[in-house]
C-alpha cells in the first residue's frame, strides 16, 4: 500500500468472464499454501478447509507470530503464553459456498434420462459420493473451529456473520469479552472469499459490482468517492488481530501496536427489507461512529484519518460521505481518507479487520498509504483524491464499515505512546 | 454481576414444529407430544432419513404489519418474524411512548437461508464438463443468471433475518448475527445481555431462527451420520439419553425474546418474565468432528455461567438445589448425551443425580441455530408454570447415564432457577442461567 500496488487482478482459477467483472482482489493460488502454515500434525485437516478457513488460518498464524505468542502451534515450546481457557477467538465469516466442482461431481451420477437431477437416486446412492465431512467445510464457525484447535483457544469463541461488518463486530465482541473478564486475549477478526461462482453471483444480484470486462489498470476499476464511481469489486482475504488486555500485554513485556479504544454498532434503516439500500435520512452510521468516539472518549476534532468502507458503489459512498460530514462538520474535507477497496476489493467478512489492521499499522508507522484507483479529486468534497503515501502525524484513526444487510460498525484505533496516559 | 445492570426478559415468542404460540407449544411439551413426521418439503423417500420435525400451518402474514415488505423473505426469516412479533407484543414495547429505537438492538443466532436446490443443481449440471471434472465457468454463469432468482439468493445471507426484523420493528441499535451451529442462539442471547449490561442498548431483540430441512441440509447431516435413521414411527426417533439413541431429528423454527435492562422495564411498567443471571461460553479446541470426551468445554461454559450468577454448583446447604432444572442440549447422539452427562457430573458433583434435566429435542426436534432460544423460553415457562417438560422416548437407560432425565412424563416442581446448555459442531459451548424475577 505504501507503493500503491493493487491486489486486484483477473480471476484465473475459473472462467469468470461471464460476470459483470472478471476482476477481483485475488490471492494467487501459488502464493499461499495453508499446508505450509499449519503444524505438520494438522496437515490432514486442511483437506476439509474451505478457502475462507484457509485464509483465517493463515491470518491467525501471522497474528500469533507478530504478537510473539507461544501457542500449541508453536515449535519447540510446550508452555503457552496464556492459559488456553483465557484465550478467546472471534472470527467473522460469510455464507460459505460449496465447492461447485466437488458438489457437481457428486451429483453427476444422480441424473435422469434428460440429464436432470434425480433426487431419489441421490438419496439412494448419490450422496455417498460426498465425503462424510462435506457439511463441515461450509459451516461458518469452521474458521474459528480450526483456528481454536490449532492454537488451543478454549475461551469464548463466536462467529459473527454480518457481511462486511462481521469482523468489525467481532473485534467489538472480543473487546467486550475481555472487558467482562472472560478472557485475557482474543484472536479476533474475520475472513472470507467470495471469489467463486456463487459468491460473485450473489453480489452481482445485489447490484454491488461494477461492470468492467477489461482493464488496463485493475486498481482503477473501483473508484471510491469519485464522480465516475461505478460499483464495487470483490476480493478475498482475512484479517486477524491479537487483542489483549493492556495490563496483560505490558506484563509480558511486549510493545502494543495500537490501542483499540472505541467501538460502536448500529443497524440501518433501509429502503428495502434486506438492508441493501440505506434510507436517505438514515442516521445509523452516524450513530455507530458517535458510539465509537464516545466510548473512546474522543472528540471529533481529534480524529486524524478515517478509513470508511469506501466501496466505490455510488449509493454506499454517499452513505459514507454523509456520515463523515454529519459527524465532522466543517472539518470533514480536511481529514484524509484511507481507501482500501482499490487494493483488495470487498473482502466480505474479512474486510473490517483488515481495515483495522491497516489503521493500526498507519498509527505505528506514522504514515498514510497511497490512494489509488481514482484519478481526480472526489465528488463528495472529501479528501479522497489520488495521492502517494506520505508521512503523517496520526494519533487517532477511525474505521467504519457499512454492510450488505445494514449492520454498521465503527472502531476507533489510537497510537500507542508507551503506556503514558493511556 | 452485582454491580452491573440486571437484564430481564419482557417478551417471548416462537414458531416451532409443535405450534406457533407459547401456550400451544407448552401444552404439547408437557403432554410429551411430538412434532416429527415424514418430510414434506421435498421427496426424501430414498434418503437415509425420511422424517423431520417441520413447522406446520404457519402463516407469517398474520404476524407482520405488511407481508408485502417481506415478500422475498426466506423461510428462516419468516419464522423469525412470527416469533419476534409474539415477543414484541408480549413486551408491550409499542405502548412505550418514549421508546428510543436507536437504543433497541438485535442479536440473533440465525442460520443461513434455504438453498434454491433445484435451480442451483440444474445450473451446476448444465455446466458440467465430465472430462475436466469441473463446471464450465461461462456456461455456469449464463445458466445461473437465467435460472436463479436475485432476491432468493441474497435472502440466504445469514444476516437477512436481522435486516427484516429491523425493518419490521424500526429499530436501529447495535445489530449482530452469530452462527455457531447448534449453540448460536444461546450465544446470541448471552452476548445480547452483555451489550445491555455495558450500556450499549436498553432493549435487545434476541434469539435464533433456522431450517436445514432441504435436500442438501439433510444430506450434510446424513453424511455425518448425525441424524436418526429410525425405522418406524418418527415420533419415536429422537431418543435422548436412551441406550438405543441413534442421532438427532432435524427440526426448524424460531425462538425470540426481548431482553431489557431492569430499570428500563420497570420504569415503563413492564412485567419481567424472568431474569438472565448467568452466561458462559467456551470452546473445545479439540477436534473438528468430536467433542472433548471429558466434557471439559461444556463444564467450562457451565462453570463460567454459574460463577457469573453467583451460584456454587456444589452447595445445597440451604436445602435448595443450586439449579432446579437443566435444559439439556440432549441431541440424542451417542456422543453428545454421554459427554453432556459427564460434564454435568463434573460441575455438580454429588448433587448431579438430584437435578432434573430433560431434552425437549425428543419432542420438538433439533432447531439447530434456533435450539437454544426455544429451550431458554421453555425454561422460563417451566419457572412460570411450575412444571418440567419430559424427555420423550427414554425407556432403556444407558450405562453411566444415570441422571434424572424426567423420562416420558412431565413433572410438577417448584422451579426458581434453570440452566440451559447448547453445544455446537465446531466446538462452541454455551450456557445460560435464568431465574424467576424478584425485586
In short:
The complex is a heterodimer of chains A (422) and B (439). By secondary structure, chain A is an alpha/beta fold. Helices cover 27% and strands 15% of the residues of chain A.
Compute the number of helices of chain A: 11
Rg of chain B, please? 21 Å
Return the string of H and E elements of chain A. Answer: EEHEHHHEHEHEHEHEHHHEEEE
Number of helices of chain B: 13
Low-confidence stretches of chain A: none
Structural class of chain B: alpha/beta
CATH architectural category of the largest domain in chain B: 3-Layer(aba) Sandwich
Q: Please report the total strand number of chain B as a whole number.
A: 16
Beta-strand share of residues of chain B: 15-25%
How far apart lie the N and C ends of chain A?
29 Å
- CATH superfamily (homologous) name of the largest domain in chain B: Thiolase/Chalcone synthase
Specify the CATH architecture of the largest domain in chain A: 3-Layer(aba) Sandwich
CATH topology of the largest domain in chain A: Peroxisomal Thiolase, Chain A, domain 1
Q: Which protein chains are joined by the largest interface, and how many residues does each one contribute?
A: A-B, 97 and 99 residues
The major sheet of chain B is characterized as: 10 strands, mixed
Helix content of chain A: 25-40%
Q: Write down the Rg of chain A.
A: 22 Å
Verbal overview:
- The complex is a heterodimer of chains A (422) and B (439).
- In chain A, strand 11 (396-401) and strand 12 (407-415) form a beta hairpin.
- The mean pLDDT of chain A is 96.
- Chain A has 422 residues and is an alpha/beta fold.
- In chain A, 62% of the residues are buried.
- Chain A has helices at residues 51-66, 100-107, 119-124, 142-151, 166-179, 197-205, 246-251, 284-295, 314-328, 341-344, 351-365; strands spanning 8-10, 23-25, 87-92, 157-158, 185-193, 236-244, 258-267, 305-307, 367-368, 390-391, 396-401, 407-415.
- In chain A, the strands form four sheets. Chain A has a four-stranded mixed beta sheet with strand order 4-3-5-6, with helices on both faces. In chain A, strands 7-12-11-8 form a four-stranded mixed beta sheet.
- Chain A is 27% helix and 15% strand.
- Chain A folds into two domains: 8-97 and 138-415, Thiolase/Chalcone synthase (Peroxisomal Thiolase, Chain A, domain 1, 3-Layer(aba) Sandwich), CATH 3.40.47.10; 100-129, no CATH class.
- In chain A, helix 1 packs parallel to helix 4 (142-151), helix 5 packs across helix 11 (351-365) and helix 8 (284-295) crosses helix 9.
- Chain A is globular, with a radius of gyration of 22 Å.
- By secondary structure, chain B is an alpha/beta fold.
- Chain B folds into two domains: 7-115 and 156-435, Thiolase/Chalcone synthase (Peroxisomal Thiolase, Chain A, domain 1), CATH 3.40.47; 117-151, no CATH class.
- In chain B, the strands form four sheets. In chain B, strands 7-4-8-9-1-10-16-15-11-12 form a ten-stranded mixed beta sheet, with helices on both faces.
- In chain B, helix 11 (334-348) links the parallel strand 11 and strand 12 (357-358).
- The two termini of chain B are 16 Å apart.
- The mean pLDDT of chain B is 97.
- The chains are: A alpha/beta (422), B alpha/beta (439).
- At the A-B interface, helix 2, helix 3, helix 4, strand 4 and helix 5 of A face helix 3, strand 6, helix 4, helix 5 and helix 6 of B.
Amino acid at each position: 500500500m505504501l507503493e500503491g500496488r493493487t491486489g486486484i487482478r483477473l480471476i484465473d482459477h475459473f472462467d469468470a468472464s461471464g460476470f459483470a467483472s472478471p476482476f477481483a482482489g485475488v490471492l494467487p493460488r501459488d502464493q499461499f499454501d495453508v499446508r505450509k502454515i499449519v503444524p505438520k500434525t494438522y496437515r490432514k485437516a486442511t483437506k476439509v478447509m474451505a478457502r475462507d478457513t484457509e485464509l483465517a488460518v493463515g491470518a491467525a498464524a501471522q497474528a500469533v507470530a507478530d504478537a510473539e505468542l507461544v501457542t500449541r502451534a508453536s515449535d519447540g515450546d510446550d508452555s503457552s503464553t496464556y492459559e488456553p481457557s483465557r484465550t478467546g477467538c472471534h472470527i467473522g465469516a460469510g455464507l460459505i459456498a460449496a465447492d461447485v466442482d466437488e458438489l457437481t461431481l457428486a451429483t453427476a451420477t444422480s441424473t435422469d434420462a434428460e440429464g436432470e437431477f434425480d433426487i431419489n437416486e441421490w438419496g439412494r446412492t448419490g450422496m455417498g459420493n460426498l465425503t462424510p465431512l462435506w457439511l463441515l467445510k461450509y459451516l461458518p464457525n469452521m474458521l474459528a473451529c480450526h483456528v481454536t484447535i490449532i492454537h488451543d483457544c478454549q475461551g469464548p469463541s463466536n462467529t459473527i456473520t454480518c457481511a462486511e461488518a462481521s469482523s468489525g463486530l467481532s473485534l467489538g465482541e472480543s473487546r467486550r469479552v475481555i472487558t467482562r473478564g472472560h478472557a485475557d486475549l482474543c484472536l479476533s477478526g474475520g475472513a472470507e472469499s467470495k471469489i467463486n461462482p456463487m459468491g460473485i453471483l450473489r453480489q452481482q444480484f445485489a447490484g454491488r459490482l461494477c461492470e468492467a470486462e477489461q482493464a488496463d489498470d485493475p486498481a482503477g476499476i473501483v473508484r471510491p468517492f469519485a464522480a465516475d464511481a461505478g460499483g464495487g469489486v470483490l476480493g478475498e482475504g482475512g484479517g486477524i488481530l491479537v487483542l489483549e488486555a493492556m495490563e496483560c500485554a505490558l506484563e509480558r513485556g511486549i510493545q502494543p501496536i495500537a490501542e483499540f479504544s472505541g467501538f460502536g454498532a448500529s443497524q440501518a434503516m433501509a429502503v428495502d427489507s434486506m438492508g441493501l439500500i440505506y434510507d436517505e435520512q438514515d442516521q445509523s452510521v452516524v450513530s455507530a461512529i458517535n458510539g465509537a468516539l464516545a466510548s473512546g472518549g474522543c472528540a471529533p476534532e481529534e480524529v486524524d484519518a478515517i478509513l470508511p468502507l469506501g466501496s466505490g458503489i455510488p449509493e454506499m459512498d454517499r452513505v459514507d460521505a454523509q456520515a463523515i460530514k454529519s459527524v465532522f462538520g466543517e472539518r470533514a474535507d480536511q481529514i484524509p481518507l484511507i481507501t482500501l477497496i482499490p487494493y483488495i476489493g470487498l473482502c466480505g467478512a474479512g474486510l473490517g479487520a483488515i481495515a483495522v489492521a491497516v489503521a493500526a499499522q498507519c498509527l505505528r508507522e506514522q504514515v498514510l498509504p497511497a490512494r489509488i484507483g481514482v484519478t481526480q479529486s472526489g465528488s463528495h468534497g472529501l479528501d479522497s483524491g489520488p495521492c502517494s503515501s506520505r508521512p503523517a502525524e496520526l494519533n487517532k484513526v477511525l474505521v467504519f464499515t457499512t454492510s450488505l444487510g445494514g449492520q454498521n460498525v465503527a472502531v476507533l484505533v489510537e497510537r500507542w505512546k508507551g503506556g503514558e496516559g493511556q | 454481576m452485582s454491580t452491573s445492570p440486571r437484564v430481564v426478559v419482557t417478551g417471548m415468542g416462537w414458531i416451532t414444529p409443535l405450534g406457533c404460540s407459547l401456550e400451544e407449544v407448552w401444552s404439547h411439551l408437557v403432554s410429551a407430544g411430538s412434532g416429527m413426521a415424514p418430510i414434506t418439503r421435498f421427496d426424501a423417500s430414498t434418503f437415509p432419513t425420511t422424517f423431520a420435525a417441520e413447522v406446520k400451518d404457519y402463516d407469517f402474514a398474520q404476524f407482520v404489519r405488511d407481508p408485502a415488505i417481506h415478500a422475498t423473505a426466506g423461510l428462516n426469516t419468516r419464522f423469525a418474524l412470527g416469533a419476534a412479533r409474539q415477543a414484541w407484543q408480549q413486551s408491550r414495547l409499542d405502548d412505550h411512548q418514549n421508546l428510543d429505537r436507536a437504543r433497541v438492538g438485535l442479536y440473533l443466532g440465525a442460520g443461513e437461508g434455504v438453498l434454491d436446490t433445484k435451480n442451483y443443481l440444474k445450473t451446476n449440471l448444465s455446466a458440467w464438463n465430465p472430462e475436466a471434472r469441473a463446471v464450465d465457468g461461462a456456461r455456469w454463469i449464463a445458466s445461473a443468471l437465467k435460472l436463479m432468482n436475485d432476491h432468493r439468493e441474497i435472502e440466504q445471507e445469514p444476516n437477512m433475518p436481522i435486516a427484516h426484523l429491523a425493518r419490521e420493528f424500526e429499530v436501529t441499535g447495535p445489530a449482530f448475527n452469530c452462527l455457531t451451529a447448534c449453540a448460536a442462539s444461546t450465544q446470541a442471547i448471552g452476548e445480547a445481555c452483555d451489550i445491555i449490561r455495558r450500556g450499549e442498548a436498553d432493549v435487545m431483540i434476541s434469539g435464533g431462527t433456522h431450517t436445514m430441512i432441504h435436500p442438501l441440509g439433510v444430506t450434510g447431516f446424513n453424511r455425518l451420520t448425525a441424524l436418526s435413521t429410525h425405522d418406524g414411527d418418527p415420533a419415536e426417533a429422537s431418543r435422548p439419553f436412551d441406550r438405543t439413541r441413534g442421532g438427532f431429528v432435524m427440526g426448524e423454527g424460531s425462538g425470540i425474546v426481548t431482553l431489557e435492562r431492569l430499570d428500563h422495564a420497570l420504569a415503563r411498567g413492564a412485567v419481567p418474565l424472568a431474569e438472565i443471571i448467568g452466561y458462559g461460553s467456551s470452546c473445545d479446541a479439540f477436534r473438528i468432528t468430536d467433542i472433548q470426551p471429558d466434557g471439559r468445554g461444556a463444564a467450562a461454559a457451565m462453570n463460567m455461567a454459574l460463577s457469573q450468577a453467583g451460584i456454587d454448583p456444589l452447595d445445597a446447604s440451604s436445602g435448595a438445589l443450586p439449579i432446579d432444572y437443566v435444559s439439556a442440549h440432549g441431541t440424542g447422539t451417542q456422543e453428545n448425551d454421554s459427554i453432556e452427562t459427564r460434564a454435568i457430573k463434573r460441575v455438580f458433583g454429588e448433587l448431579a443425580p438430584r437435578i432434573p434435566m430433560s431434552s425437549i429435542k425428543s419432542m420438538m426436534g433439533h432447531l439447530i441455530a434456533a435450539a437454544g432460544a426455544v429451550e431458554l423460553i421453555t425454561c422460563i415457562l417451566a419457572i412460570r408454570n411450575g412444571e418440567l417438560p419430559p424427555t420423550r422416548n427414554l425407556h432403556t437407560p444407558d450405562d453411566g447415564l444415570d441422571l434424572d432425565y424426567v423420562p416420558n412424563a412431565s413433572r410438577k416442581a417448584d422451579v426458581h432457577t434453570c440452566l440451559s446448555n447448547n453445544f455446537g459442531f465446531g466446538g462452541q459451548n454455551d450456557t445460560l442461567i435464568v431465574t424467576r424475577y424478584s425485586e
